[in-house]
Design goal:
The chain is mainly α and 208 residues long. The protein has nine helices and no strands.
């Protein structure tokens, strides 16, 4: 392995660094974007029971805010439940935008890695061919070993760049799709709570 890295030339190091960063981002995002961590099952139902029984307190809202991204969105709405439906919905949407930004953290960096590693590999190809032609200029074409170093550098960096870029691109698309699904589920749960609270107010079960 060490010999392959050395044969790939200096551009192997930034490519390898990109691979390490990409792996770290993917592992961290897979953990953070777990559905049970973002949108805990039945969280909305538990909060709704507190609302129906009129036992919801500010302490519950504070605990909900620390529970999960979904909890943070719901807590923002419940903290403004006495200010009317429009304000409640507006606050939920504003908090949701901040939560989405946090869910998308590091995904741009992963996409950048997927884009630049093939270019680094291509740059390695160019520098490798330059080295090969320099060797030909100095020593001629009689000895194939003269060309092997530059051509080897070109091929290794190109292959390594693609090996890093392809999984990074797949992971980026997958994680982006996961964020989109989580956001849709979050929006459904938040609007479910707003609509249910409206019905409860209309029935007079809670004060508007």
């Amino acid at each position: 392995m060490w010999e392959i890295i050395r044969a790939g030339g200096p551009l192997m190091w930034p490519i390898l660094l990109c691979s390490v960063v990409a792996v770290a981002i993917v592992v961290e995002r897979l953990w953070t974007l777990s559905p049970r961590r973002v949108n805990p099952a039945e969280l909305t139902d538990k909060i709704w029971k507190l609302v129906q029984t009129r036992t919801l307190t500010d302490r519950h809202v504070e605990a909900l805010e620390q529970n999960s991204p979904l909890g943070r969105v719901l807590a923002s709405g419940l903290a403004n439940r006495d200010r009317g439906r429009d304000i409640m919905k507006e606050v939920i949407e504003d908090t949701g935008r901040h939560v989405v930004h946090e869910l998308e953290r590091f995904l741009d960096a992963l996409g950048t890695i997927a884009a630049i590693t093939p270019l680094l590999g291509l740059l390695g190809t160019v520098t490798g061919m330059i080295s090969a032609f320099d060797a030909i200029t100095v020593q001629g074409v009689g000895d194939p070993q003269v060309l092997s170093g530059g051509i080897g550098e070109a091929l290794i960096t190109t292959a390594t760049g693609l090996i890093v870029a392809i999984p990074a691109l797949i992971a980026h698309r997958y994680l982006r799709a996961r964020v989109d699904r989580l956001v849709v589920d979050m929006e459904k749960e938040a609007m479910k709570l707003v609509q249910a609270y409206d019905r409860l107010q209309a029935s007079g079960a809670v004060k508007p």
